Amino acid sequence: MMHICAMNIKYFICLLCLTSLIVSCKSPEEIYAEAETAYNAKDYKKAIELFKEAAEDSVTEAQYRLGECYYNGIGVNKDLKEATMWFLTAAEAGHVKAQNIIGLCFELGKGVDQDFAQAVKWFTKAAKNGHVISQLHLAECYANGKGAIQDYKIAAEWYAKAAEQNNIEAIVKLAECYLEGKGVNRDYKIACEWLSKAAEQNNKGAQLKLGRCYYIGLGVNRDYTKAIYWFKKLADEGDPTAQLYIGECYFNGNGVEKNESTAVNWFEKSANNGCNEAKAILGKCYIEGTGVVADTTKATPLLLDAANNNDVLAQFYLANVYLYYTPKKNAKKAVYWLKKAATKGNVDAQYNLAICYENGVGTKKDYTQAAKWYNKAVAQGHTDAKYNLAICFLEGTGVEKNFDTAEELLIDAANEGSTDAKNLLDILYQEEDDGVSEEETIVEEEI
After folding, report:
1. Burial code of 359-381, b = ≥16 C-beta within 10 A, e = fewer?
2. pLDDT of residue 432
3. What dihedral angle (degrees, nearest 10) is formed by the CA atoms of 349, 354, 356, 358?
4. I need a labelling partner for 333 at 20 to 30 A (CA). Which of 125, 210, 257, 377 fits?
5. Does residue 3 carry a pLDDT above 90?
6. What is the pLDDT of residues 305-318, one digit of tens each?
7. SS (H, E, C) the chain
8. 177-186, 288-297, 424-433 — which is least confidently predicted?
9. In this predicted structure, what is the pLDDT of residue 442?
10. Residues 157-173: pLDDT tens digits?
C-alpha cells in the first residue's frame, strides 16, 4: 500500500514538471499574443511583463508595442528614452512602423537628441517600405531642406507616392507643387485634379483652393457657380476667406445676382471672423456708402485694425480717410500710412505719396522723394504717375531735365488714355514746329 502511494506521488511530481515544461516552452510569438490579450483587457501590468519577455526574445512587434507603452506611459511610467531604445531596436530589425516613429523622435528630439539627418534616414527606410506617413514626412524634409539638401523634385516624388495612397495632406501638397511649379512642371489642370480629390474628401484647404481656381479659371474653365459651391460650403462653417469670396461674388454679380447689401453682410461676417482684407473692403464700403449708409466713424476702426495687422489695402484706404473724409483731416497720419502701403508696393499709395511730397502735404516738400515715388508707380504702369513724372523731367524737379525721357512717358500715358498727356504732347510738338518755322524764315531771309 505504501509502495503504491509512493508511486502515485512520484507520478504526480512528474506530471507537474511536465506541465511546467510545457508552459515554459511557449514560443515568443505566443507570449506576445498573450501580451496583446492582456493589453486589450486593460491588464497593463501583465501586458508589460509579457511584451518585455517577447521583446527580449526578438519579437519586433513586441519591441514596438513596448516602446509605445513607455512613450505614452501605459502600464509604466512614461520614459521617452526607454521608448526610443525599443523603437530603435525594432526599427533596426526592419519594423516599418518603428522606423517611422523613430524618425519622428529624431525629428522632434523626443527621447533622443534632435537630428534631422537621422530622421531622414529612418523616414527613407519606412517610406521605401510603403509607409505613407513616412513618405509625407520625407517629402516635407526635402521640401524644407531639413536633414537633406532642399530638393523640390524629390519632395514632389514622395508627395506623389503618398498621394497615390490617398493621404489627403500629401494630395494637397502635391497640388500645390503643380500650382507653383515646384519640383514639377507647372500644370494647373493636374493641380485641380488633385485638389478635386482632396476637396471631395472634405479637406477645407483643398476646397478653398479649388474654389479659387474656378473663380479665376485656373486649370479649369471659369465657373462662378462651382466656385460659389465650394466657397459656400466653407463660408457656412465660418471660414473668413470663403466668406470674403462670397461677398465679392455678390458685390460684382459673379455667379449670383449683384447685390451690394448682401455683399456687405458677407464682408461683415468675414471681418468678424478676423479677415483683414474683409475689414479693408468693408471700411471702403462705409467710406463710399456702397451697400451701406456712408459712415466714416464705422470705417475708421475697421481700417485701423486691419492696417495695424499689415493689410496694405487698409493702410491705403485709411490714408485716404485722413486726407479727405474725416472732419478733422490729418495729413501727417495720412502720409504715415501711405508710406507703409507704398513701401509694400501698393501703386496707388506710391502715387499719392509722391503727390504729398511734391506739394508738401503732411510732410516737407521734397521733389526728389516725389520723383522717386512717381518712378516706382510708373514701374507698375500707373498712367497718371507717368504724366507727373514727365513734368518732373521737363522742369528738372527732383530729377535732371531730360526731354526725351519726358516725351516717352507722355507718349505712354497718352496711349493709355491720358488726355492731359495728349494735350501736353500737342503743345510741345507745336512749340517745336514754331521753332523750326522761325529758323526756316531766318534762312530764307539770308538767302
Report:
1. eebbbeebbebbbbbbbbbbeee
2. 67
3. -170
4. 377
5. no
6. 999 999 999 999 99
7. CHHHHHHHHHHHHHHHHHHHHHHHCCCHHHHHHHHHHHHHCCCHHHHHHHHHHHHHCCCHHHHHHHHHHHHHCCCCCCCHHHHHHHHHHHHHCCCHHHHHHHHHHHHHCCCCCCCHHHHHHHHHHHHHCCCHHHHHHHHHHHHHCCCCCCCHHHHHHHHHHHHHCCCHHHHHHHHHHHHHCCCCCCCHHHHHHHHHHHHCCCCHHHHHHHHHHHHHCCCCCCCHHHHHHHHHHHHCCCCHHHHHHHHHHHHHCCCCCCCHHHHHHHHHHHHHCCCHHHHHHHHHHHHHCCCCCCCHHHHHHHHHHHHHCCCHHHHHHHHHHHHHHCCCCCHHHHHHHHHHHHHCCCHHHHHHHHHHHHHCCCCCCCHHHHHHHHHHHHHCCCHHHHHHHHHHHHHCCCCCCCHHHHHHHHHHHHHCCCHHHHHHHHHHHHHHHHHHHHHHHHHHHHC
8. 424-433
9. 41
10. 999 999 999 999 999 99
Give the global pTM.
0.80
Nine-digit cell string for 70: 513607455
Task: Give the pLDDT of residue 206.
Answer: 97
Q: Residue ranges per domain, the chain?
A: 345-432
